[in-house]
Amino acid sequence: MWPLLGCSVLALTMVIERAIFWWRLSRLENDEFIERMLSLAERREYSRAVAECEASEDPAARMISAGLAHREYCLSEAMAARSAVEVEKMKRGMAVLDTIITMSPLLGILGTVTGIIKSFNLLGERGMDDPRAATAGLAEALITTAAGLVVALLTLLPHNYFVARIQSSAQRLERIGSELEVVYARSRDRKDGSGADASCDGI
Predict the structure, then answer these.
(1) Which of 56, 9, 7, 60 is nearest to 38 (CA)?
(2) What is the DSSP string of the chain?
(3) What is the pTM of this model?
(4) Contact criterion met (CB below 8 Å) for 194 and 188
(5) Whether pLDDT at 127 is above 60
């Protein structure tokens, strides 16, 4: 039970930390601001867009800033690199929660098995004179399995919610990155009529 208690405390800590992270991120994400940055990029006001994006804590704004800052070299690759950094921040602690979900039932079963072994050893020593001692030991041994399942189930719900939020935010970054590539290619095309795109080969 002590390892299960440790798992439950660790899971609760990580869930609270991730919940605070996603609450703050939901307040930082500003699609109107992003649309304005895309408009600045389309008007070729790159320096202003970079400066405003650097002052923002929206992951998409930081991705736009990285892309425009390296637009003359490789806009798409710069955005992809920054996007990967932002997604890694979102995934922080998820491996711990996933491990607890897998490990808690196993710890519970291990506790039950060792308890059953002790109960049968007790039954072998005392014989059938005191069967209630053995059955009481079996009932106590099953508590660890129940505790392990409870810890896993209570961790599974927030874990799946966080996974869904990560996927949603990653899709948002991908969508905004694609929009910026289109906007940047269009602004370049208007300037020189070259029709160059925002990929590495087109720069």
Answers:
(1) 60
(2) -HHHHHHHHHHHHHHHHHHHHHHHHHHH--HHHHHHHHHHHHTT-HHHHHHHHHT---HHHHHHHHHHHTHHHHHHHHHHHHHHHHHHHHHTTHHHHHHHHHHHHHHHHHHHHHHHHHHHHHHHHHGGG-HHHHHHHHHHHHHHHHHHHHHHHHHHHHHHHHHHHHHHHHHHHHHHHHHHHHHHHHHHHHHHS----SSGGG-
(3) 0.82
(4) yes
(5) no
